[in-house]
Design a protein that fits this description.
With 288 residues, this protein is α/β, with parallel strands linked by helices. It contains 13 helices and 8 strands. It has 2 domains: 162 residues, NAD(P)-binding Rossmann-like Domain (Rossmann fold, 3-Layer(aba) Sandwich); 115 residues, N-(1-d-carboxylethyl)-l-norvaline Dehydrogenase, domain 2 (Orthogonal Bundle), CATH 1.10.1040. It is 55% helix and 14% strand.
């Protein structure tokens, strides 16, 4: 039976632990510096020993998954390395999207094989169903033995493996942040504009939701270029000019519109928009 411990009983660590347990893996320890979080994580995962001590994971058998914020990965690795017990032949994975596996260097010096394992998915709660991992891509980087351990996790969760170099981790994570975090901020910006038109936030989000969902469906079914719609794609300079004039009262949204408008224009140009229309729209978006 495959065994594992979780260090960091937050949303990702707990969700991964619960999903692995449901796939037949045996939880050994659920460690968090907050005792209540450790107990909650253990309850959701369904087994294992809840603890605030890294020694619980160090003394357990099997894989260790370190699912703590980036700023705490090094400290968690040092604490685990100081705990008694042998790390020789064990694999330790951290779930940071931007840090390389070498962030676990204190454990590597103790004989562990180390790697990073990061899912291209968002986790708003700790009690996410195991199905949330199906089809998800996981970025993996690190020592060969630990990469193989990470691959076993990904296969168990019905995901896909993306092998990365350490140098490309920050670029990869920036892409994930833009696709997820920036999308939420963009919808917040759009909802704020509807607020200026008289809608409250809940009504604004509800009004925009079908548009957002339809756009994502189009990206999935048609691809990026064919999913693009709107005035910039059509070369409709008059409409873009009206947008820019209306947004003068909302300078932060205006800045977002100009920057993203430039990116939309690039995609429209790739799709064959006439060069004269591109020049006109570029002048408008750049403030000319």
């Amino acid at each position: 039976m495959k065994r594992f411990s979780i260090v960091g009983a937050g949303r990702l660590g707990t969700s991964v632990g619960a999903a692995l347990a449901r796939r037949g893996w045996r939880p050994e320890a659920v460690v968090d510096r907050d005792a209540r979080a450790a107990r909650e994580g253990r309850r959701i995962i369904g087994a294992g020993r809840a603890s605030t001590s890294p020694a619980a994971a160090a003394g357990a058998k099997g894989l260790v998954i370190v699912a703590v914020p980036d700023s705490r990965v090094g400290r968690a690795a040092s604490a685990l390395a100081r705990a008694s017990g042998s790390w020789a032949g064990r694999a330790v994975l951290h779930t940071s999207g931007s840090l390389p596996g070498s962030a676990l260097a204190p454990l590597a010096r103790r004989g562990a094989s180390v790697a990073s394992l990061h899912p291209v998915q968002a986790f708003p709660r700790k009690d996410m169903p195991a199905s949330i991992f199906r089809g998800v891509t996981w970025a993996v980087e690190g020592d060969a033995a630990a990469v193989e351990a990470a691959a076993r996790v990904v296969r168990a969760l019905r995901g896909h493996i993306l092998l990365l170099s350490a140098a490309n981790k920050p670029l990869y994570h920036a892409a994930c942040a833009l696709a997820s975090n920036a999308l939420v901020a963009l919808e917040w910006t759009a909802a704020g504009l509807l607020g200026r038109a008289g809608l409250d936030e809940r009504a604004s989000v509800a009004a925009l939701r079908p548009l957002l969902q339809g756009t994502l469906q189009n990206v999935n079914s048609l691809g990026l270029e064919k999913a693009l719609t709107g005035p910039i794609l059509r070369g409709d300079a008059a409409t873009v000019k009206r947008h820019l004039e209306a947004l003068r009262a909302a300078p932060e949204a205006l800045e977002v519109y100009r920057v993203l408008g430039g990116r939309i224009l690039g995609l429209a140009a790739q799709g064959g928009l006439a060069k004269a229309k591109i020049r006109t729209l570029r002048r408008l978006l750049e403030g000319g």
